[in-house]
Amino acid sequence: MTAATTKTTAAGAAKPAAKKAAKPAESVFKSVEDYTAAAREQFEKAFGDFSGNAEELRDQFETLSGAVNEGFNRTREHVTDVSSEIAEAAREEVADAVQFANDLTKAKSLTDALEIQRDYWTNLFEARVERTKEITERSINLARKNAEPFAEAKAPSFFADSKAFENFFRFPAKA
Question: Does pTM top 0.85 for this prediction?
Answer without folding.
Answer: no
